[in-house]
Amino acid sequence: MAAAWTRGPTIGRGSSASVSLATTAGGEVFAAVKSTDLSSSASLQKEGILISQLSSPYIVKCLGSDITCEESGHVYNLFLEYLPGGTLSDRIKKQGGSLDETAIGKHAHGILMGLNYLHTKGLVHCDIKGENILLGENGSVKIADFGCAKRVGSGGSGFSGTPAYMAPETARGEEQGFAADVWALGCTVVEMATGSHPWPEMKDPAAALYRVGFSGDVPETPAWFSGQARDFLDNCLTRDPRERWTAAELLRHPFMIAASAEEGSGEVIGEFAKRASPTSVMDQDFWDALEVPENPMEISSDSDSPAGRIMDLIGDGLSYGGWTEEEGWLTVRGRLRGQTKND
User: Where is the chain membrane-spanning (predicted)?
Assistant: First the structure.
């Protein structure tokens, strides 16, 4: 990375890093720079290595990295493509809390193109949501924030992401594979339609994960959706990951074919194949609550019981495996069944 750059205003802040505008000596914005203290930058450096290996118009570009000496000490900086359109969540708010079906289809198609690319590379994003989708000037979408991403089959057994968007199998502490990204896409479609988290009635973290993992419920499909949009969402939010459609299959769905035609991209894969699916409902207040009650479910925490699995995921209080607020959404990082703190 060229040495001559200036840190501009902060445009985002997470639990472990801040994001600022990076400008040239002439004052021109050339990147968004994600920065953190060098001593705790291992995760950000890993993210940089991962993104630098990707090349897709649907994935934010890595422009390099450097280390600067600042008042706070040595800082590791990761330079990322700057997209002036902001996040998808920002766009939803500006549109009054709901996008129309045409816009939802267009954005979902772009996210799917990015997910299909990642999945063919053996990568799971693990934190798809409106806050992690960036928009270009022409409304194009790019997947960003790979801090939770992992390679399938890499041996890691941890889980991460935003609880409101977690798939049932992840909430149960079983797995977090490609299918979990598809479930999160379905939750993001609900966000685009409603401006809200997909489980707005839930207040308690443990009880919410329990409901996601074990109740059989799915987020409610917006009543105003067309038949095609409803069927598309149903196939994203199928509780059984083995029955849930893959990103490649969803790109063949009529709703995506129509969205692709609207976009004029022509990037549609294959023909449509039908499968069956299921539906149900669940305020933002819950996802703003950081405290885990002392006895949230008042049932055994044996690791073989559903409650035990949930408590394994939540971990010990708010430190390890806990809940941290990042850019207005809660991000959780923890372990799956059988994993210890030292794993």
Answer: none
pLDDT over 70 for what percent of the chain?
74
| Catalytic center residues | 127
Written as one string, the DSSP assignment of 245-293 is: PPHHHHTTSHHHHHHHHHHT-----S-------------HHHHH--PPP
pLDDT above 80 for 162: yes
Numbered residues of the known binding site for ATP: 34
218 shares a domain with 71: no
Question: Which CATH number fits the domain that encloses residue 295?
Answer: 1.10.510.10
Burial 48-83 (b: 16+ CB within 10 A, else e): bebbeebebebbbbbbebeeeeeeeeebbbbbbbbb
The mean pLDDT value for 158-186 works out to: 92
DSSP class of 93: H
- State how far the Cα of 104 lies from the Cα of 99, in Å rounded to an integer: 6
Instruction: Give the tens place of pLDDT for each residue, 95-126.
Output: 999 999 999 999 999 999 999 999 999 999 99
* Amino acid identity, position 46: K
Neighbours of 183 (CB within 10 A): 27
- Same structural domain, 201 and 275: yes
* Residue 137: Cβ-neighbour burial (10 angstroms; 0-12, 13-18, 19+): exposed
Q: Which of 333, 338, 301, 340 is nearest to 319 (CA)?
A: 333
Q: Are residues 219 and 165 in the same domain?
A: yes
For residue 139, what is the DSSP state?
S
